[in-house]
Amino acid sequence: MELRQLEYFLAVVEERSFTRAAARLHVAQPGVSTHIRRLEQELGQPLLDRSGPAVRPTQAGTTLLPYARSALSAVSGGRLALDELAGLVRGRLSVGVVTSCSTVPVADLMADFHRSYPEVEIHLSEASSDRLVAGLRAGELDAALIGVASKPPPGLHHLIVVDEPVVAGVVPEDPLAARDVVPLAELCERPLICLPRGTGVRAVLEEACESRGVPMRITMEAADPHRLVQLAERGLGAAVLPAPFARRHGDRTRGVEIVSPRIRARIALAWSAERGMSPAGQAFLDLARAALTPV
């Protein structure tokens, strides 16, 4: 088994096409096919399903995929570590950010890192927390800013950098707007507007409801907290969201803190506890931990 074979196999799986994989690798398409065919012969099993319009991994290919990624990552990490010894940091940095993470200066972090390490190719992606956690575990991300519940996801190191109350956003004329707090059980008697499953706020809300045996009725979902506020402003329900988003719309929305229990929205800087960190990833972690104040 050769590293080149694994590299070609991984490219075909990610591109779902021999032609696009060859273009990405800057090699001829027959060469890609030949190397993968030899790999399949060596392993004694087909790794790719070529029958459909898009190439897909077989069960054997899916099983091999994380090991191929780990092997290539290990070789790349070794090369980068040697570069680091020579005073160089280059390669690729992949960072994930939970959707609508506006309380962390992500753009400033990226700009500071680029100024310090201009040779590193930076990739930034935005997704729900559960997808970012999956990316960290699969080795697709070096670090991510994720929403976390009371128990952080296993297999990850984390540093809490944002910890804010979760509130119910209601219109000023709502009777609830005259109060400072609302018990969770009382709030859940209303239709709720919330972030979708896989986000930190949704996770802590579900966790709190389950711990108190309180059923909840979520009638509307939106990935953008500002959209939640817009829906609440039109009298469509109480928006469950971090306090800063309600404060930004203070002229049209009143944020009432949820109690019994109090619910917190937490953002954590997270990275894998089970995989070695590349020099670029370690440099980013060092910069981020210095720039972000732990809570």
Beta-strand share of residues: 15-25%
- Mean pLDDT across every amino acid position: 90
CATH topology of the largest domain: D-Maltodextrin-Binding Protein, domain 2
Total domain units: 3
**Top-tier CATH class of the largest domain:** Alpha Beta
| Biggest sheet overview | 10 strands, mixed
General description of the model:
The radius of gyration is 23 Å and the shape is elongated. Helix 5 links the parallel strand 3 and strand 4 (about 120-125). With about 300 residues, it is an alpha/beta fold. It contains eleven helices and twelve strands. One of its GO terms (molecular function) is DNA binding. Pfam families: HTH_1 (PF00126), LysR_substrate (PF03466). Keywords: DNA-binding, Transcription, Transcription regulation. Belongs to the LysR transcriptional regulatory family.
